[in-house]
Design a protein that fits this description.
Radius of gyration: 18 Å
Shape: globular
Bound molecules: glutathione
Number of strands: 5
Mean pLDDT: 94
CATH class of the largest domain: Mainly Alpha
Order of helices and strands: EEHEHEEHHHHHHHH
Length: about 240
């Protein structure tokens, strides 16, 4: 067990080191300077006690003083509502907008990026890259005239937290010379730079992140480890 900040915390996250869904509540907790504890589990052999907390067997799960919670969005909103300040906009339309992008990021950004980075053939990687480019085109339009994705676009908020793990992984893939998904998207690049300037973007992953990520890609026989040159869709 790792106490991330302070002790006697009432919030206890169940995690896997490379999971982008867990990174969201960790970033939120760090942004709000709220103490919490973390326990890492082996997702390939999840302990019995974890399956009682998380009915779908997925991380993150959060133990609270009231009982367990699962699903990163529910967890983030619970944390946001029960701690000081709020990263969810007060305006109902803007709050709904943040929730919609939270959901979109899970399904249309995290999943295809995971499949693209772990793909064992160039063809499979390219297919995911094409899907991502379509979604990124929509995001580019949405970000026009804004500093942030959240709310009115003036302040860092929940929708930005929701997408931050994706932005970090795209930046890492570019740094490794694999692909640059944000090429040709100036609004996204400016927003990604703002996100990368926040210390919590990197502090929200544990020190074993790179090692576990590398091992996961080796196990999946990732094309990027074998042939790291850029794919057609990433140019
Ligand atoms: N919709 C879930 C997705 C969580 C998720 O897919 N977590 C992955 C790890 S990154 C997991 O626990 N996978 C284990 C499994 O599917 O058995 C959320 O937002 O929390």
């Amino acid at each position: 067990m790792d106490t991330a900040a302070g002790s006697r915390s009432e919030l206890h996250l169940i995690s896997f080191p490379t999971c982008p869904f867990v990174q969201r509540p960790v970033m939120l907790l760090q942004e709000k300077d709220v103490p919490f504890e973390v326990t890492y589990i082996d997702l390939s052999d999840p302990p019995e006690w974890f399956l009682r907390l998380s009915p779908r067997g997925k991380v993150p799960a959060l133990k609270t003083e009231h009982g367990p919670l699962f699903e990163s969005q529910a967890i983030c909103e619970y944390i946001d509502e029960t701690t000081e300040g709020s990263l969810l906009p007060a305006n109902p339309y803007e709050r709904a907008h943040d929730r919609a992008w939270f959901q979109l990021a899970s399904e249309d950004l995290f999943v295809p990026l995971y499949l693209m980075i772990g793909a064992s053939t160039r063809k499979d990687a390219d297919e995911q890259g094409i899907k991502l480019k379509v979604t990124l085109g929509r995001l580019e339009e949405t970000l026009y005239g804004r500093d942030w994705l959240s709310g009115s676009g003036k302040h860092f908020g929940m929708a930005d937290v929701a997408c931050a793990p994706f932005v970090m992984r795209v930046a890492d893939a570019k740094a490794r010379g694999w692909f640059d998904l944000f090429e040709g998207f100036p609004q996204i690049n400016a927003w990604a730079d703002r996100l990368q300037a926040r210390p919590t973007l990197r502090s929200s992953v544990p020190k074993q992140y790179a090692e576990v990520e590398q091992k996961g890609l080796e196990d999946r026989d990732s094309i990027w480890l074998r042939e790291p040159q850029r794919a057609e869709t990433g140019r």
